[in-house]
Design goal:
heterodimer, A: 257 residues, Rossmann fold, six-stranded mixed sheet, 35% helix, globular, B: 332 residues, mainly alpha, 2 domains, 14 helices, 4 strands, binds adenosine-5'-triphosphate, binds magnesium ion
Chain lengths: 257, 332
């Protein structure tokens, strides 16, 4: 069974077709890259599926259930999580508290007002564990606001991952991060996500990263899906090369430096 | 939460709390009766500000209408005593809390649909509705004269202590001081647990980033609503305790300037800290009392003092003291 299926999904902003009739199916365990030029509608698609934006028409089926009109929190509970293109954290809380919140939520303990959060051993271990996986153990007590950009980006991902979702959308997890750190962040994300058997959709501009990690690539253009397939198929797709790079040819995706 | 020194800092907190409570407990032996009365008022307002700050400091919602819950508690007690002939203060508290929570649930349901200035305006408007009711339905509420609640008619601790016979006033002042002190201590502990609970963390998450809070699975509006009711209940308890002390409840405590005073207490003490509103309420109470006593133009004097204090201590009294102690510690 498909994990996610969108049926004729649409979202317009005035005349802008941000999401235009998208039919996307995602199977369990896939690692998908969603690519496309600026303004292609990648973030909008992610926003509609995760519930940040409502759709104009179409359907979103998750694990066989229609979640088109479900609240964000209901989608989170069902197993859809996401990170954000622009870092979106609890800035006044520590890195640890940021992650612990997600852990409390996943374990159904977040409503508890009669117990002290800092004495919940299970949650502390789990939250520290997640921070460790993302290389943030040393920053646990730092306020999110005071972290470096790369660390904030990682914490944003860690926050979504700590929910142990079935389906994880990562919107440009390495944007604004130095090229040196990029590979490391992607390695971390890929190993963590694969290790947990999480189905992931990564929005990413760096085609080296895309080809390296994904087992399927979905190309968007002007709100619609232009092409999709294996990295090899996409690499050899001239139309995609035109759209993404403005040039075509067999070596369009190879670095020219 | 989760700092490595958690165990140690919890112990330190406990020790400091015990010292402060002990000091408060022995204080009446060393000061005149008027000072004990004054401090009782301070502790009552501290409970009110503590409740208010669950919304402002922890949930990020500035209520301009907390007089409504203080007043709801106060009027509920007055009705219970006058119309039901109840004497037990405990029954008054239970009845008063039920009434306050009901009103907070109703008003909160409307208000938490909005944030920022819209939230503030709505809370203000709803509190003015209660005020005008108390004002207009004078045959029920006594209008501007209010309702008298004679402390001599009340009993504490399920009837164990009453205030009949000679020396009743003095006995009431001291007995009631300890009564309020005990409830203040209990309220503070409960509030401390709430803000350090997972639920309390969720409120802070909502305060920091509402959108992300939803994306970790927090139902923002419901949590705000629950926080609103808790907040109202604490401020309501303060109103309940205030009535026997004051001996009278009037529409003033439902009127918006009193909401403003509650805001001020929290800001003065420091709304970013747990203890700030407590300290702010006690200090504000002294400032106001002495301002009223010293000049006819007390509003002007009080206003000036408050403006200067807030400008000099932008993080509030507690925030400033905390920064100074950490600086001193750094030097040692
Ligand atoms: N809230 C909004 N209001 C109006 N227009 C919007 C809004 N969000 C997105 N758009 C428009 O929808 C289109 C798709 O934007 P979207 O952010 O989804 O693209 P993207 O593929 O994520 O681009 P990028 O790679 O730059 O992040 C763009 O033309 C954008 O201007
Ligand atoms: Mg985008």
């Amino acid at each position: 069974m498909n994990l996610l299926e969108t049926v004729n999904l649409k979202r317009y902003f005035g005349d802008t077709r941000a999401v235009d009739d998208v039919n996307l199916t995602i199977a369990d365990g896939e690692f998908i890259s969603l690519v496309g030029p600026n303004g292609a509608g990648k973030t909008s698609l992610c926003n509609v599926v995760s519930g940040l934006l409502t759709s104009d028409s179409g359907k979103i089926i998750f694990k066989g259930h229609d979640v088109t009109h479900a609240a964000v929190t209901a989608r989170v509970r069902a197993g859809i999580a996401r990170s954000f293109q622009l870092v979106n954290l609890f800035d006044d809380l520590s890195a640890f508290d940021n992650v612990a919140l997600a852990v409390f939520s996943r374990e159904g303990k977040i409503r508890n007002m009669a117990a002290l959060a800092h004495l919940d051993h299970d949650v502390i271990v789990e939250a520290d564990n997640v921070l460790g996986q993302f290389g943030l153990a040393g920053k646990r007590n730092e306020t999110a606001r005071d972290l470096a950009q790369g660390e904030r980006k990682l914490l944003d991902v860690a926050l979504a991952y700590a929910l142990r979702p079935k389906l994880l959308f990562l919107d440009e997890p390495t944007s604004g991060v130095s090229t040196r750190d990029k590979g490391q962040i992607m390695d971390t994300i890929a190993s963590v996500v694969r290790g947990e058997g999480i189905t992931a959709v990564i929005i990413e501009h760096d085609m080296d990263v895309v080809f390296k990690y994904s087992n399927r690539i979905v190309v968007m253009h002007q709100g619609a899906i232009l092409a999709q397939g294996t990295p090899d198929a996409i690499r050899n797709n001239d139309q995609v090369a035109m759209i993404l790079l403005g040039s075509s040819g067999p070596d369009a995706f190879t670095r020219k430096d | 939460m989760g700092s490595p020194a958690t165990g140690a800092s919890t112990w330190r907190l406990l020790v400091v709390t015990v010292i402060i409570l002990t000091a408060l407990a022995v204080l009446p032996r060393f000061v005149e009766i008027y000072q004990t009365q004054l401090l009782t008022y301070g502790l009552v307002f501290a409970i009110a500000a503590l409740g208010f700050n669950l919304l402002l400091g922890y949930t990020g919602l500035l209520s301009f209408g907390h007089s409504a819950y203080f007043g709801a508690g106060a009027y509920a007690v007055a009705f219970i005593v006058r119309d039901l002939g109840v004497q037990s203060m405990e029954l008054c508290i239970l009845g008063g809390l039920a009434a306050t929570i009901l009103i907070a649930a109703l008003f909160g349901f409307v208000c938490v649909r909005h944030t920022r200035i819209f939230f503030g305006i709505l809370t203000l408007a709803l509190s003015q509705v209660l005020w005008s009711l108390a004002f207009k339905f004078f045959w029920v509420t006594g209008g501007t004269d209010g309702i008298r609640v004679a402390s001599a008619k009340l009993t504490l601790y399920g009837g164990l202590i009453n205030f009949a016979g000679p020396g009743a006033f003095q006995r009431f002042v001291y007995a009631y001081y300890y009564y309020v002190l005990a409830l203040f201590a209990v309220s503070t502990v409960i509030m401390w647990v709430i803000v350090h609970s997972p639920f309390g963390k969720a409120l802070q998450a909502i305060r920091d980033n509402e959108v992300r809070a939803r994306f970790v699975g927090i139902s923002v509006q419901r949590y705000r609503w629950i926080a609103f009711m808790i907040s109202g209940a604490f401020t309501g308890l303060a109103g309940i305790l205030w009535v026997p002390l004051n001996g009278l409840t009037t529409p003033d405590i439902l009127y918006w300037p009193f909401s403003g005073e509650i805001v001020f207490m929290s800001v003065l003490g420091g709304f970013r800290t747990f203890t700030g509103p407590i300290v702010g309420a006690v200090v504000f109470n002294y400032l106001k009392t002495y301002a009223v006593a010293s000049t006819e133009y007390w509003q002007l004097l009080l206003g000036l003092v408050l403006v200067i204090l807030v400008m000099a201590l932008p993080t509030g009294i507690v925030g400033t003291v905390a920064r100074m102690t950490s600086k001193l510690r750094g030097r040692i």
